[in-house]
Structure formats: C-alpha cells, structure tokens
Write a structure and sequence with these properties.
heterodimer; A: alpha/beta; Rossmann fold; B: mainly alpha; ABC transporter involved in vitamin B12 uptake, BtuC; two-stranded antiparallel ribbon
C-alpha cells in the first residue's frame, strides 16, 4: 500500500456541497515511466473548488504527461487520482468526462468543419446522449441546445454560433475549445496552454475569461505565459525534470530562490 | 443561393427522380425495368456503406459479406418446392446480416485506418470461402431461389413478387424507406455522434462518448441495411453465388460511394446508377471494361472531389465566381 499523504487528508469523501476551497481532484504520488525515463515522479497536486492551480515548468518538465494522466489520456505507472475522494485512476478519458472532468488541448482540438454551435452541441449532448432516439431531430432537444448556447456565451463567443469553427481566428478557436469543455458541465477543468499562440489582446481576454470560470469550478492551468499565470493563479506548482520543485501561492513562487534558478532565470524578478 | 433554397431544390429534384422511377415501367422494357431494379438495390447497398465510409469515417472493404449473408439466408430459407414467407424471410435475412456485422464489428472496430480496411477485407474473405468451399450454399456453383417469397398474410395477398412490375415497386419502396430511415438517423443525436467521430474521434472520446459502442451500432446497422439489399438482389435474380460476397463486390460498392460522393445518401444512389451505367456502356465496347472503369474512378477522385452529387454546387460556384470576377 502506498503510504498516506497529506493530500489524502484534505479529501472529504463524497462531498458534493459547493464549498469554496474544497478539494475536488487530487493527484497522489503520480509516476509515469517511459522505459527507463520517469516523465513524472511522485507528483502530488490538489485542485480546489473556486481556485485556479497553475502548473509551470520548462519544456520537458512533465507538465503534459501530468495533465494527460489526470484527463485519462495516459495511464499512470504508479499513484492514484481521486475525484471527490473516490479513486478514479482506472477510468478512461470518456468515463472521466462523464463524471465532470473536462479537458482542453494544447493544440486546438475541435471539429473544424462544424459550426460553433454544433461543436458545443455535441459537447453538451454527451451529458444526455439519448442515442436510441434515432427518429428525433438532435436540434430539437432543447436542453442540449440551450446548454451549448450558454457555454458559447460564457466563453465569450456570443453571436458566432453559426460560424464554421475552422474558419475562425486562432484566438476564437481557443475560446471555442473552452466553450466545449464548459458545455459538458465540467466541475474540474484541465486546461492545457489555452493561451498558446495568442496575441497580447487575445491573451488579456482569455485571462479575464479564466478569472470568471474559476468561481464554481476547480481549474488546472498548464501555461507558459508567466504574466498570465501570476495574474490568475491562486496556487502555482513548478515542475522540473518530472518532479515537483515547489508548490505554493504566487508570492512564494515568485520569491523562491530554487524556482528562480531552475526556471524563471535571473532576469525575471 | 442560400442553403435553405438549395435544400428545397434538392428536395424537388429527389421528388422528380422518384416520380420518374415510379413511371419508368410504363415506358421501359422489362429488360430495363429489371436493370433499374438492380441499380436501386445496389443503391440501397451503397447507402448502407456510405453510413460507414461517408458519415462515420470507417472505410470498410468487406461490406459484400453482409449483402451475401442475407442473400444466402433467403436462399437457404426457401424450401425446394415452395416459396418462403416474405414476412419471415426478409427480417431473418436482415437480422442474419446484422448479427454477422455485430460479431465481426467487435473485432474489426478495434483497429483503425489501413488496418481496418485490411481486417474488414479479411473477414469478408473468410465468409466468402465458407460459402465457396463448403456444400452449405451449393459451393462455388451457388444456389437457386426457386420461388420468390410469398407476401400473403393469412390468405390475403397484398402483392406478388413473381410479377416483375410489382417486384420493381417493392424495390422502389425499399429504397425510399432506407433513404428516409437513414436521413432521420443522421439528424438524430446518434447520427450527429457518428459524424463527430468521422471528424475527430479522439475529441469525441474526451467529450465523454464511448465511441466504440457508437461505431459498433453503426457497423451493425450498415450490415443490416446491406442485408436488405442482399435479400432483394437474391429475390430479383433468383440465385445466389459466392461472387455476391467476393471482394470485387465490396470494391464495386465502395466505387459507387466514391463516384456519387461520400457522405451523401442521394449520392450513393447516383453512384450506383453511374457505376452500372458505365459498366454496361464499357462492356459493350470491350471485354476489358474494368480497365476503363478504373480510369474513370481515378479521374473522378482527382478531378471531382465530392463526387457526382457535388457537381451542381461546384458548377454553380464557378459560374457565380466568374460573374463576380467579371
């Protein structure tokens, strides 16, 4: 048996009331090896409701491996993942989505040939798929369509329902990526570099969006953009070479000598 | 032209074609009536494959297996000196094809891309050799369906499939039924998921869809509908041979789908017309008609993306574009 960690103690088993600061998702000593290489070694993270937890680290630090394990895209070699106190380590990506874990991708991963509405409608439909209703027009299922429209508005894409997703700007496609996760009613958002490739204006919009999103949800944000991370994060975990170097509030990370030498470089104080 | 107008035009066109099909026996000879019936049956077959290839993104090269299994089922269900009951033989044939597709789907759907193409072909070849090399269905000679199924219900005879004209209309009704059925399925939540899988299966999974189950349902459904076609084909021609489930047949129906335009149900029927029409024309000219057909398919893929069904839209676009530029 793995020894108990402090992460376990913060979990309230089966808690479902919307308590801010309540631990929703916990990574407990996650390890992933690729052959002899440990891409992640004993990584512990706690995602709390109402909080945005940022994962920082240089290229190759293991951030993507970590988020892939949390989303179910990659099975861990060792360790556990808990959601609301329940062990979900063995659930597939699709199963995790159904229990409220939503993931966006670093490289835009949408349905480029579909409209914005259909992208989000498919996402919303996954909550109540009703595949046996083969003689019912999917567009007539108003619960699904309404949920999709609400997600589009929340992600800042109001008025663009009819646009073909692949013809929109990069920034809008990143927003759509978020809208799709929102349309699944996810309580835990795993966002993989939502700001990648964005201009400064688009980035500022996305940062505002992220601030609004965390109200009722727990968010893990993997991001390279330092300014954005320090602007929105409540907790920052810095990874280097597959291990957690330091974890704490932004001020602690900003002033950490270890982090500065390992990652931030000397110019960034 | 706005999309609403063009879909209205498409609907009118379909109704005109349907009226033509209904009127055809009054003008065409019995030879051509049978040929059109054959084409319509292959149109059903092509639509069933298009559900996989064009809408779900599953390129099956073994679709003839389900067509052939249904054809053999009706042949084996027909007693030597009596007709089979239509209302038993038809569902039994369709269910046999769907059941085979379900079982084979359990295996083949674990693969993707080129591997999927190869294993669907391999399973179809296994089915082919079961009928070719055993006495079950008369071996390589095939088997006769001596009597066309009897449509009577408790003494009442709504129609008689021994009458070529009535058989023709039975085929037309089947084509319309399958077309309407698939149109409804494709706009349903289930159909939307299939199209999502074609576009981006990984994303569908991360959105929480168990895509394997959806693909298996589509594969089974497509197998059952191919069974409708196989049943009608066996009834129309009165015999079944292993050639019905050979890989040539699987290749031909795939070419119909490509010619007509993948992801378009009406296109699949147009593709069946085009394929059989070209086949008849080329085989009049030369016994090497397959060489010419191959050339047509290559040209269609290179110069006609979207197939025949996309031609009107492409032409309109070109005309409008030139008007705007000029």
């Amino acid at each position: 048996m793995a020894e108990m960690t402090t992460a376990d103690l913060t979990v309230v088993a089966g808690a479902s009331a919307a308590v801010p600061g309540e631990a929703m998702m916990v990574a407990d000593k996650l390890t992933r090896r690729f052959g002899g290489l440990a891409a992640n070694q004993d990584v512990c993270l706690t995602l709390e409701r109402g909080k945005l937890h940022a994962l920082l680290g240089p290229n190759g630090a293991g951030k993507s491996t970590c988020i892939n394990m949390l989303s179910g895209d990659l099975p861990p070699s060792e360790g556990r993942i808990l959601l609301g106190g329940k062990d979900i380590t063995r659930l597939s990506a699709a199963q995790r989505s159904r229990i409220g874990i939503g993931r966006s991708y670093q490289r835009t991963n949408i349905f480029p040939g579909f409209t914005v509405l259909e992208n989000c409608r498919l996402a919303a439909q996954s909550r109540n798929p009703r595949p046996w209703k083969i003689f019912t027009d999917a567009l007539g299922l108003s619960d699904t369509v309404d949920r999709a429209r609400a997600a589009i508005v929340e992600a800042g894409l109001a008025g663009r329902e009819g646009r073909i997703a692949g013809t929109m700007s990069h920034g809008e496609q990143r927003q759509l990526e978020i809208a799709m996760v929102l349309a699944t009613d996810a309580r835990v958002l795993l966002l993989d570099e939502p700001l990648a490739g964005m201009g400064s204006e688009e980035s500022a919009q996305m940062v505002e969006l992220l601030k609004g999103l965390k109200k009722n949800r727990a968010i893990l944000l993997v991001e390279h953009d330092m300014d954005a991370v320090f602007a929105v994060a409540d907790t920052i975990t810095v990874m280097v070479n597959g291990v957690v170097l330091e974890s704490g509030p932004p001020e602690q990370i900003r002033n950490s000598a270890d982090v500065q030498t390992a990652y931030l470089g000397e110019g960034h104080v | 032209m706005n999309p609403q107008n063009s879909s209205r035009i498409a609907l009118v066109l379909k109704l005109v074609v349907l009226a033509g099909l209904i009127a055809f026996p009054a003008f065409g000879s019995s030879f051509y009536t049978e040929m059109v019936a054959k084409i319509l049956i292959l149109g059903i077959f092509a639509m069933s494959l298009d559900l996989l290839v064009g809408f779900t993104g599953l390129v099956s090269l073994g679709h003839a297996a389900y067509f052939g299994i249904a054809a053999y089922t009706v042949a084996l269900l027909t007693p030597k000196y009596d007709p089979a009951d239509l209302w038993l033989a038809l569902p039994a044939s369709v269910l046999a094809a769907a059941a085979a597709a379900f079982v084979i789907g359990l295996f083949v759907l674990r693969t993707k891309g080129i591997y999927f193409i190869m294993v669907t072909l391999a399973f179809a070849q296994m089915v082919y050799f079961i009928f070719h090399d055993t006495a079950l269905g008369g071996g390589s000679d095939g088997i006769y369906v001596n009597f066309k199924p009897d449509a009577s219900i408790a003494g009442w005879v709504p129609f008689d499939l021994n009458e070529p004209i009535q058989l023709y209309y039975f085929v037309v009704v089947a084509l319309v039924a399958v077309f309407v059925f698939l149109t409804l399925v494709l706009r349903s939540p289930f159909g939307r998921v299939l199209v999502g899988i074609r576009s981006n299966e990984h994303r569908m999974q991360s959105l929480g869809y168990a895509t394997f189950h959806y693909k298996l349902a589509a594969f089974t459904l497509a197998g059952g509908l191919a069974g409708v076609a196989g049943f009608l084909y066996a009834v129309l021609f009165g015999f079944v041979t292993p050639e019905y489930l050979s890989w040539h047949q699987s290749g031909n129906v795939l070419m119909m789908v490509i010619l007509g335009g993948m992801g378009n149900l009406a296109g699949a029927v147009i593709g069946a017309f085009a394929f059989i029409g070209l086949q008849e024309m080329f085989s009049d000219w030369t016994k090497h008609w397959q060489l010419l057909m191959g050339g047509v398919i290559v040209a269609a893929v290179l110069f006609m993306p979207g197939g025949l069904s996309a031609l009107p839209r492409r032409i309109m676009k070109k005309v409008n574009g030139e008007r705007e530029n000029g």
